[in-house]
């Protein structure tokens, strides 16, 4: 074992995730948590819930987080890192507020937060920070000591996040028949969000159309495509496509969709596609700090300031950096851009 690592000033790591139902009876209550305050009829939630019922009412996210927790704890122990790991969710048990209360009762005062969301957007960054601030406010109202909470930065281009997707693409290509392998195109799929939400994920003048949400996905797709080209010697066409549309039916969402890409007749000869899911839960670097509770109110702009690329960050298509950077920003202010 290498020399023991010192986690100072942190005395705990909090894995913060979205949460999901773990049985049919959980589905509608879970969706009510997700959509609380939006006035969505229960009948509509039951309709949406059919997607979960197809899989027995169980989302895979909780078991994936349990696996990640076990891996983190083992990795910390293997490297002599004495840092307890806790788990809290925004929308299902174990709930964030309950977990933070447990942290405080265990004497934790400086907490590092790993959110299972790699990209910038209101729901992928700022809302996590708002939920952290709201949970801290609840603890303060209960008379408990409020710990300082530091949120890790977006990790979309971290080597530990990118490399498994490179390996997945290479394996998918190897599984294709040899006579079509070199002609295969690459499609990188991710969650569709309303275009209005994407546009406020980071300034368009810095990131282009679709804000930081689209730019970051294009960056990681380019990193994967470049690595696949380097390892196979084949320069393949690739495209970023979207799935799992969210938002109101009347609101335009990110496009093109994975379905339209699959059915596309724009090419005279249909070609095989290799698909890569641009989502996971891995990180190393710190970004945002939330130590003072703020009002839970959706700001005019949903851009999370930790979405801004620091000067040393990689440019699109460049290899991800091997060294860490670290910076902090204050919690979001209601109405702040």
TrEMBL record:
Family: Belongs to the ferrochelatase family.
Stated name of the protein: Ferrochelatase
Gene3D superfamilies, alphabetized: 3.40.50.1400
InterPro entries reported in the protein's UniProt record: Ferrochelatase, Ferrochelatase_N
GO molecular function, one term: ferrochelatase activity
Coiled-coil ranges per UniProt: none
UniProt feature, compositional bias: Pro residues: 311-322
Organism: Streptomyces alboflavus
One Pfam family matching this protein: Ferrochelatase
């Amino acid at each position: 074992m290498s020399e023991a690592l010192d986690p100072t000033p942190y005395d705990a790591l909090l894995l913060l995730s979205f949460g999901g139902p773990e049985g049919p009876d959980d589905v509608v209550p879970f969706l009510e948590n997700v959509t609380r305050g939006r006035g969505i009829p229960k009948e509509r939630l039951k309709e949406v819930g059919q997607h979960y019922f197809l899989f027995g009412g169980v989302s895979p996210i909780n078991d994936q987080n349990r696996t990640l927790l076990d891996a983190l704890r083992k990795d910390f122990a293997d490297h002599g890192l004495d840092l307890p790991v806790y788990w809290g969710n925004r929308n299902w048990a174990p709930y964030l507020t309950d977990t933070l209360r447990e942290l405080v009762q265990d004497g934790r005062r400086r907490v590092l937060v790993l959110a299972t969301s790699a990209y910038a957007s209101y729901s992928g960054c700022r809302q996590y920070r708002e939920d952290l601030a709201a949970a801290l406010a609840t603890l303060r109202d209960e008379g408990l000591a409020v710990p300082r909470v530091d949120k890790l930065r977006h990790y979309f281009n971290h080597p530990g996040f990118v490399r498994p997707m490179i390996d997945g693409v290479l394996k998918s290509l190897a599984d294709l028949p040899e006579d079509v392998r070199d002609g295969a195109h690459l499609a990188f799929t991710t969650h569709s969000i309303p275009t209005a939400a994407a546009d406020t994920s980071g300034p368009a003048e810095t990131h282009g159309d679709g804000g930081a949400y689209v730019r970051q996905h294009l960056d990681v797709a380019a990193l994967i495509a470049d690595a696949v080209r380097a390892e196979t010697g084949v320069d393949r066409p690739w495209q970023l496509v979207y799935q799992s549309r969210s938002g109101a039916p009347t609101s335009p969402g990110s496009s093109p969709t994975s379905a339209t890409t699959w059915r596309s007749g724009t090419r005279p000869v249909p070609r095989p596609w290799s698909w890569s899911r641009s989502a996971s839960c891995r990180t190393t670097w710190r970004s945002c700090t939330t130590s003072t509770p703020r009002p839970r109110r959706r700001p005019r702009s949903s851009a999370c300031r930790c979405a801004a690329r620091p000067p040393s960050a990689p440019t699109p298509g460049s290899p991800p950096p091997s060294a860490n950077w670290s910076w902090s920003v204050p919690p979001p202010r209601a109405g702040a851009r």
